[in-house]
Design goal:
heterodimer; A: alpha/beta; six-stranded mixed sheet; four-stranded antiparallel sheet; B: mainly alpha; 0% strand
Chain lengths: 326, 267
């Protein structure tokens, strides 16, 4: 039985087209034209309990819309959504007790008061029993290192610390599912690492199902074994990250430090670039093994130093987007 | 219920923190009280006849409306709610296991009560000890006092529902400017906060008797100063209750409708 099941959902937004300028504004005042944008176009997937799923796609692909539908805020035009046996948009009040949501670009904490006061408010809103609340809060405080920042007014917190509080706030009522919409946006490397490790921990310890949208591929690499790729509202790929890598991650950059020059042409070499102190080859490992390639060039030039780089996951995704024409 | 009261508490605590605002509020109330009273005194002394209210009643009316001002004025905008609608943070409100409409009612009533509690006592106390004819005359009978308290409770509920209603409209218009602003100003005028309803031309009196606005400030204060009889008062309280039921139903239905077609702004 799948924990989250999404079947053929569609959502179209009606967007008024406004012409610019005074005349245009006047015109659209009397006769308004609309454009229909298919934010989500027939998407289906299912997720098991305890999975971490990375939900990726370029800007405007429909990621946030999906999250909003899954969290019961938006109603899909057609299709079925069932999460933990409930229909989010119908059983909203009952359903939202079981989920936690973090929108990375928004804040759920009261700006002027310390986070702990917001937490206490959430305790009342979710009717969390006192003992349970205290133990959860203690745990979260320890895991996220919150002691010193809980009593500072939220407006005085750094973005990283605020995000930690946001995530803690969404977990106070011990949800079974956690939706993270760009949780690491704008964070520095250290905070990102803390957030990622924390997500991993709660997934393991509490078996919380996590759906994560992000543009930071390092998040996906660190967290999600399974990814769902969407573009222009359509589902493009649903499967493991490693499989995707196998299909797309075949280029290696080999930087050779040398004083010699080389003139080589082979179809396994995609690109040759001259650097100040050597040469950078980009090779296709489907056509030649690295071992073979090094043998080949070492027979022609003397190698002082060598550096092999696999492709950045960001570039991989760019290639993927290009492939799917999104 | 308890989970809604926490908004109330929070707004209350936040409101109480702004002491400087409260002092400034009291001073403003006095300033406007004196301006209104000076105008009325000049008006009465110029020898106009057939005036619908006695000067002393009118002056008490002005002081009462000034002391409860922050609870009864109608062009109130809750910045937090309006921003939430504009920038899409309303998404978080919808994630709570609560009713959005009731949540807003509690937020707004909490905010208004916290602001009136800091302001009304000083205005009443000082205006009572002012020299005649500028003073507030608090003497009244027990039945009137009881009716007044009841009507004030109902009027704060009515005020909350009206203000929430304007905010609910913003769910459709996305902005409080324009039509909502116009509504707010009209309702403020018709509520009798500037000029008491008996001074309106006849046709405007008829209009304001039907509409809910007058039952928020004009009615309870005129009841207190004795310009409205107890019998009339009882009927008006029934009108208050009717409007409360009506506005609550409309507000709730509109909210549900708005949320069905909700579009969350900004990604």
């Amino acid at each position: 039985m799948s924990f989250i099941s999404v079947k053929h959902i569609k959502k179209t937004f009606k967007v008024p087209i406004k012409s610019s300028g005074i005349l245009g504004t006047l015109k659209s005042f009397f006769k308004r034209k609309y454009r229909y944008i298919k934010a989500i176009d027939d998407i289906s997937f299912s997720i098991k309990k305890g999975e971490i799923v990375g939900y990726i796609g370029p800007n405007g692909a429909g990621k946030s819309t999906t999250i909003k539908i899954l969290s019961g805020i938006l109603v899909p035009d057609s299709g079925d959504v069932k999460v933990a046996g409930l229909i989010p948009s119908k059983d909203r009040k009952e359903y939202v007790k079981q989920i936690g949501v973090v929108f990375g670009q928004r804040s759920q904490l009261w700006w002027d008061i310390p986070a702990i006061d917001s937490f206490n408010l959430l305790k009342e809103i979710y009717k969390i029993p006192k003992e349970q609340y205290e133990s959860t809060l203690n745990e979260l405080t320890k895991l996220l290192n919150l002691e010193e920042i809980l009593n500072v007014p939220v407006r005085n917190l750094s973005l990283g610390n605020r995000m930690k509080c946001e995530i803690a706030a969404s977990l106070l009522h011990s949800p079974k599912i956690l939706f993270l919409d760009e949780p690491t946006i704008g964070l520095d490397a250290v905070s990102k690492k803390v957030v990622r490790e924390f997500i991993k921990k709660i997934n393991k310890q509490k078996n919380v199902t996590i759906i994560l949208t992000t543009h930071d591929m390092a998040d996906i690499e660190a967290l999600a074994k399974r990814i769902i790729l969407i573009g222009k509202g359509k589902l493009l790929y649903d499967g493991s990250l490693s499989k995707l890598k196998k299909n797309y991650d075949y280029l290696r950059k080999i930087k050779v430090v040398t004083k010699d020059t080389i003139d080589i042409k082979k179809d396994c070499i995609v690109k040759i670039e001259k650097l100040d102190d050597g040469i950078e080859f980009t090779i296709d490992i489907r056509k030649i093994e690295i071992n073979e390639f090094i043998k080949l060039i070492s027979s022609k030039i003397s190698i002082i130093d060598i550096d092999i780089d696999s492709e950045n996951i960001d570039e991989l995704i760019v290639k993927l987007y290009e492939d799917f024409k999104i | 219920m308890k989970s809604y009261l926490c908004y109330f508490k929070l707004k209350f605590i936040t409101g109480l923190q702004y002491r400087a605002a409260a002092i400034a509020g009291v001073l403003t109330q006095f300033f406007f009280g004196f301006v209104y009273i000076s105008v009325y005194v000049a008006f009465y002394e110029s020898g106009s006849s057939n005036l619908p209210m006695e000067l002393s009643d009118l002056i008490s009316y002005v002081w009462l409306s000034q002391s409860f001002f922050s609870l009864i004025y109608l062009w109130y905008k809750d910045k937090e709610i309006l921003n939430m609608i504009k920038n899409g943070n309303i998404a978080y409100e919808l994630l709570r296991p609560q009713d959005l409409y009731l949540m807003w009612c509690h937020k707004i009533l909490g905010e208004r009560l916290s602001s009136v509690i800091l302001r009304f006592l000083p205005v009443i106390l000082i205006s009572v000890i002012l020299p005649k004819p500028y003073n507030l005359d608090l003497s009244t009978s027990l039945p009137v006092l009881i009716l007044f308290i009841l009507s004030m409770i109902l009027s704060s509920i009515l005020m909350t529902l009206l203000v929430v209603f304007y905010h609910v409209i913003c769910l459709f218009t996305l902005d409080e400017k324009g039509i909502v602003n116009i509504f707010m100003v009209i309702s403020d005028v018709l509520s009798g906060l500037g000029i008491p309803v008996p001074f309106f031309p006849k046709f405007m009196q008829n209009i304001s008797n039907i509409l809910p606005f007058r039952y928020i400030s004009d009615f309870p204060f005129r009841l207190y100063v004795g310009n409205i009889t107890i019998n009339e008062g009882l009927i008006s309280i029934l009108v208050q209750i009717t409007w409360i039921i009506l506005l609550f139903t409309i507000g709730k239905l509109l909210t549900n409708k708005a949320l069905k077609r909700a579009v969350i702004q900004g990604g």
